[in-house]
Inverse folding.
């Protein structure tokens, strides 16, 4: 009943299609109706076949009849109609029709599909073609072969003599489309058709006849090229087809019984290949060439392709190990590359590990390959092919990871090969930097900049070229994989034993490998002894102890820069960090030997070594429980101070000792200074001994400067905004009538008080004898009484201590000791000393009782610097005198008076240069001062609008400008903070006359005498106006440089000057 219902459902669309097809020749417009009829039939077929086994062979033939009628007139139907026809046939084949086809009909369909799949079919029989039509033709071809091969009769029919030409043509069309088509869908369907051919042909000799062409075409598609690259699905399925084809024809099971010679071909079998040993040998050579190109897909970005390539490699290794023995090494290398691919997500690696655990033959083969790679490592590392060198290191690394903890893999050969390989990389670095920098190139305080981040991991040791760094990164991965093996410590023992043997490159290679291997073993493969002490020796700890002893000898050697590469020192620092992490708090006892050498290399001129030393210090501080490296240094400063003091005392003139101090201060800040009291005298003693070496002396003074820079940061000494409120008490205010009245009242009150006191005194007669005789006895009695009753002494006020006493004492001592070196021949050293004093004076001024004696000490050696031949030294000296005036006030009054002649000379020094350039302009300028009028109605208090008085008329050289600016600052400081005589003040006005209009200069001098400043500005304004009078007899309006005074009354008359 159900079959009848299906027939009724198929009847209407089939009849409709037959009717449209029959009338298509008479009605060309019926093409749309044809497409609609085919669409209805396809929809009905899909609906019917949705239920399995609903359509039998008879019903399928019934549905095929109208479709075949359309195909008969394919030249006149649109290409879309042909596509619908193929879709209907595909639906019928999938429904089970293919298994019941007659061999003749099967052959005809194969010919039809082959014809429609050809791109040239549009020229030979149909109206047009399309990529969709070709794709559907290959799809139908694959389904036809699959359904036909389900029965033994169908398989026999495919390779029947009558069908061989059609089969060969179909294979050729598949391969041509695979290689030449631009459509990925066509390529993909042709690959599916090839797979169906491989599965459908039961005769292996017949299939072997197609092998060369199939392998050639697949190789062309699977070889990565820049043009016409297929989609990854095409590549994936192509690899699967090649794998099945090789297993089908070239597996050891299929080829073990092949005859030595080919059998004679029988009649009718000319299309088949007679396989033999010679055929196998020739085929294997061609397969090797093809696989060499196909294996380049190991770096494909799609994991599906890499897994398909892995299946191909495993097929070659496991199934074709004997027949394709020439390809096994390539396949093994490709497997290792696939397992170590960075995007593999370990899926391929896990799959390989599982295979190795169950397939002993595969494990043995990979182990043999690993042994060969280890032996070849030194030789390849000496070649110039970077790709080959990196590849073999990668292969060894991945192989070690695949075997994990298999103890039978490694032996002493690996240690020798690793050493030779790494030493070959080091040998390529012809320009390895050595630590033999001159003292002149040593870093100074300007270049000592520490990173703000707390680094706890060492950066890789850099070599001269980038390719060497890349190679060492590959070796680093290899070491990490080796560390997981149980034989790692055996290899490390062999490497550690050769640290002192061989060339520099071999020793460095052994040291680098040992340090990194032991570190990775401790991190990735901890032993049971790490958690429980059983009293048995721990090989890893013994190896680390040996490396630590060797590292200490490198760090503490007397002349570390003689013939030692900086890489040795960096590795020694890494070893110290390893030992600190191992012992943690117990490592504190080693600080006496370790801490100074580590700090010593903080002063290295090699930036990479400085970074290593700082990282090592951070690791040590963390291992010992300190919060920072600075806290570690402060807590153990006695070790460092003793070491530095001994070096300075024994005459060690290397720059590292001062640089260690400088780095320590950068790390620790002001908290370190109280512990450096003794070192200040040692530094000055060294200066006294080596003052003839300017560079060394400058470096030592940079340390002292660093001490002062950090010392003034102490909270008690740091300058605050409150200091800006300090006002001068020397300013003379304006005298008003109220002041005069108050002064007269005070004089009158004092006079009346004296008169009253005289009136109250009793009047006595004029004495007739000396007062002394009368009062002698009285005085003696009083003196006896005073002797009996000793009066207690008047209480003395206790002197307040200085702020931050220990830090203050160091700053004071440094400042005092500079007096002995201000006369040095080195101008840079003199300038450094003056810069040092500029930084310490504001902090030392906090304690007046210490600061004033310091001025008294420094004054005799500071004054000659005002006549120094170097302009920047004179400028610095003037600034320091200004600072002294600012912080000592009237204490500097007599000293300013004493130095006034020198100040005049400094002024004349600046004017000599200035007058040379201005002489021509001054000749054309005449100043008329005879017509200055002091009438208050003509005066103004507006700010000056002109800049002629402050700008130079001509260029002034930089040294003169530097001295002039400092001189103006000094005169302003004297006027503000020091009381000077009137004539001195007038001279100061003369000196600063060109810049008196500047606001800061005017305000500073007004502290001394505001009236004199006003008068000078008024005169200058009158001079600038040129003394020109108006018609009314009054002077022209002056330049507004002076202040406005209230206008007097009309009957007041002021004197004219």
């Amino acid at each position: 009943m159900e079959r009848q219902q299906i027939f009724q459902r198929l009847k209407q669309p089939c009849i409709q299609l037959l009717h449209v097809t029959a009338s298509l020749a008479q009605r060309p417009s019926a093409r749309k109706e044809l497409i609609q009829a085919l669409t209805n039939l396809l929809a009905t077929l899909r609906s019917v076949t949705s239920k399995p086994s609903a359509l039998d062979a008879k019903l399928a033939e019934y549905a095929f009849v109208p479709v075949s009628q359309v195909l008969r007139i394919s030249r006149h139907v649109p290409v879309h109609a042909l596509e619908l026809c193929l879709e209907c046939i595909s639906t019928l084949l999938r429904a089970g029709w293919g298994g019941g086809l007659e061999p003749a009909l099967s052959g005809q369909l194969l010919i039809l599909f082959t014809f429609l799949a050809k791109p040239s079919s549009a020229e030979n029989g149909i109206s047009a073609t399309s990529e969709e039509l070709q794709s559907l033709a290959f799809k139908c071809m694959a389904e036809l072969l699959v359904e036909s091969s389900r029965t033994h009769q169908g398989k026999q029919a495919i390779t029947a003599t009558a069908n061989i030409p059609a089969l060969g043509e179909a294979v050729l069309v598949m391969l041509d489309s695979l290689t030449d088509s631009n459509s990925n869908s066509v390529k993909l369907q042709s690959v599916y058709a090839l797979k169906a051919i491989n599965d459908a042909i039961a005769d292996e000799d017949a299939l072997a006849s197609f092998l060369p062409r199939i392998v050639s075409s697949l190789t062309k598609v699977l070889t990565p090229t820049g043009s016409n690259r297929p989609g990854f699905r095409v590549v994936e399925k192509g690899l699967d087809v090649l794998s099945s084809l090789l297993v089908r024809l070239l597996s050891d099971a299929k080829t073990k019984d092949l005859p030595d010679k080919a059998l004679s071909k029988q009649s009718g079998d000319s299309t088949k290949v007679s396989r033999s040993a010679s055929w196998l040998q020739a085929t294997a050579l061609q397969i090797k060439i093809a696989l060499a190109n196909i294996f380049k897909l190991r770096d494909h970005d799609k994991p599906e392709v890499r897994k398909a390539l892995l299946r191909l490699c495993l097929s070659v290794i496991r199934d074709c190990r004997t027949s394709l023995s020439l390809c096994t090494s390539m396949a093994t290398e490709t497997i290792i590359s696939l397992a170590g691919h960075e995007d593999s997500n370990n899926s391929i690696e896990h799959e390989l590990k599982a295979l190795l655990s169950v397939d002993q033959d595969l494990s043995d083969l990979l182990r043999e390959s690993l042994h060969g790679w280890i032996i070849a490592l030194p030789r390849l590392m000496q070649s110039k092919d970077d790709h080959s060198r990196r590849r073999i290191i990668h292969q060894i690394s991945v192989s070690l990871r695949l075997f994990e903890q298999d103890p039978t893999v490694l032996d002493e050969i690996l240690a020798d090969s690793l050493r030779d390989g790494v030493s070959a990389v080091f040998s390529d670095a012809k320009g390895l930097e050595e630590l033999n920098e001159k003292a002149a190139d040593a870093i100074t305080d300007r270049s000592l900049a520490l990173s703000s981040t707390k680094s706890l991991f060492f950066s890789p040791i850099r070599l001269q070229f980038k390719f060497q760094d890349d190679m060492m990164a590959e070796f680093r991965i290899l070491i990490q994989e080796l560390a997981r093996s149980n034989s790692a410590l055996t290899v490390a023992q062999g490497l550690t034993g050769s640290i002192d043997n061989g060339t520099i490159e071999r020793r460095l290679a052994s040291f680098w490998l040992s340090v990194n291997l032991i570190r990775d073993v401790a991190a990735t493969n901890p032993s049971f002894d790490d958690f429980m002490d059983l009293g048995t020796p721990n090989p890893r700890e013994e190896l680390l102890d040996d490396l630590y002893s060797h590292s200490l000898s490198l760090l503490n050697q007397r002349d570390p820069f003689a013939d030692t590469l900086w890489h040795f020192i960096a590795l020694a620092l890494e070893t110290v960090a390893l030992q600190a992490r191992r012992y943690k708090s117990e490592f504190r006892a080693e600080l006496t030997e370790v801490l100074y050498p580590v700090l010593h290399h903080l002063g290295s001129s090699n930036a990479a070594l400085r970074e290593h030393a700082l990282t090592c210090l951070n690791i040590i501080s963390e291992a010992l429980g300190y919060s920072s490296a600075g806290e570690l240094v402060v807590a153990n400063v006695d070790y460092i101070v003793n070491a530095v003091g001994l070096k300075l005392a024994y005459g060690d003139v290397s720059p590292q000792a001062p640089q260690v101090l400088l780095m320590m201060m950068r790390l620790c800040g002001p908290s370190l200074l109280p512990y450096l009291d003794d070192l200040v005298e040692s530094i000055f003693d060294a200066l006294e001994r080596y003052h003839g070496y300017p560079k060394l002396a400058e470096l030592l003074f940079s340390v002292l400067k660093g001490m002062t820079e950090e010392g003034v940061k102490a909270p008690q000494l740091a300058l605050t905004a409150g200091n800006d409120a300090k006002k001068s008490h020397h300013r003379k205010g304006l005298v008003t009538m109220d002041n005069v009245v108050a002064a007269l009242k005070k004089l009158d009150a004092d006079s009346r008080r004296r008169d009253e006191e005289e009136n109250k005194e009793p009047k006595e007669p004029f004495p007739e004898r000396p007062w002394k005789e009368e009062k002698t006895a009285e005085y003696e009695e009083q003196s006896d009484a005073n002797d009996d009753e000793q009066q207690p002494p008047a209480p003395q006020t206790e002197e307040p201590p200085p702020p931050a006493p220990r830090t203050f004492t160091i700053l004071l001592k440094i400042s005092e000791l500079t007096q002995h070196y201000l006369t040095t021949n080195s101008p840079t050293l003199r300038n450094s000393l003056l810069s040092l004093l500029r930084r310490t004076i504001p902090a030392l001024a906090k304690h007046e009782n210490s600061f004033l004696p310091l001025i008294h000490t420094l004054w005799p050696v500071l004054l000659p610097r005002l006549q120094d031949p170097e302009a920047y030294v004179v400028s610095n000296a003037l600034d320091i005198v200004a600072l002294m005036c600012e912080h000592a006030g009237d204490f500097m009054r007599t000293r300013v008076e004493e130095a006034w002649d020198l100040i005049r000379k400094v002024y004349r020094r600046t004017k000599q240069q200035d007058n040379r350039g201005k002489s021509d302009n001054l000749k054309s300028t005449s100043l008329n001062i005879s017509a200055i009028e002091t009438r208050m109605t003509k005066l103004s208090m507006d700010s000056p609008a002109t800049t002629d008085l402050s700008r130079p008329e001509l260029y002034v050289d930089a040294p003169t400008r530097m001295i002039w600016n400092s001189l103006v600052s000094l005169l302003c400081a004297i006027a503000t903070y020091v009381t000077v005589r009137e004539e001195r003040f007038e001279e100061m006005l003369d000196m600063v006359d060109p810049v008196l209009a500047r606001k800061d200069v005017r305000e500073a001098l007004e502290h001394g005498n505001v009236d004199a400043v006003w008068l000078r500005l008024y005169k200058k304004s009158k001079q600038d106006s040129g003394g020109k009078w108006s018609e009314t007899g009054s002077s022209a309006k002056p330049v507004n440089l002076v202040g406005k005074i209230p206008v007097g009354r009309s009957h007041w008359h002021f004197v004219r000057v």
About this structure: The mean pLDDT is 77. The radius of gyration is 52 Å.
